[in-house]
Amino acid sequence: PEQLQCRTVCGQGAVRCVRFNADGNYCLTGGADKSLKLWNPAKSLLLRSYLGHGQEVLAVACACDNANLASGGEDKMVAYWDTASGTAVRKYRSHLARVGALDFSPDATLLASGSVDCTVRLWDLRSKAQAPVQLLTDARDSVTAVAVHSWRIYTASLDGRLRCYDARKGAVAEGLWFEICFVKKYICAIWCTCRPHKDRCSFLRQSGS
């Protein structure tokens, strides 16, 4: 039977988002108190707090090498953090509405952010430029999830579609799922829109796996 492993009082007011790092040893929480916190969940141990948002933190992400974190919030800002020092390396303020979805590329050189402004913006983390390197505007409603895997960029929107962008060709293929996340070499896509077959879970197999 499933059992509660641990319980942590985060001290952030409402906890708006939570996400594990790549190996599952650490997790991030974003709160209504405008903070991002890094935890050792097995010990309920707070490792560091990151402050810099003006409103609630709604999305968090961790680079695969654990060297950097990202957060997005109600303040429309995307923050790129140095994990060890707690310093905000860059703050991107291009979105026109709250940011609720983030993901790093596997090599941690690209960050994708999705927003209620119906866009996905891609940030080159090797550059100090404040403008996104690419703007994806195909969504017709709020972008609820983003995932970057190899040369593919997946976005999910309240318009009922999952879009897969080929970063090499600029092509887009559309599906009908609501929210997505990666589980090892698979993509888990959960469809929960107001359509005939809601609450469907589909797994898309990665090529070569």
Automatic annotation (TrEMBL):
Coiled coil: none annotated. Keywords: Cytoplasm, Repeat, WD repeat. GO terms for biological process: mRNA splicing, via spliceosome. SMART domains: WD40. The keyword Repeat applies. One of its GO terms (cellular component) is cytoplasm. It comes from the Eukaryota. It is found in: Cytoplasm. WD repeats lie at residues 15-40, 50-91, 92-133. InterPro entries: WD40/YVTN_repeat-like_dom_sf, WD40_PAC1, WD40_repeat_CS, WD40_repeat_dom_sf, WD40_rpt, WD_repeat_MORG1. Belongs to the WD repeat MORG1 family. This is WD repeat domain-containing protein 83. It comes from Macrostomum lignano.
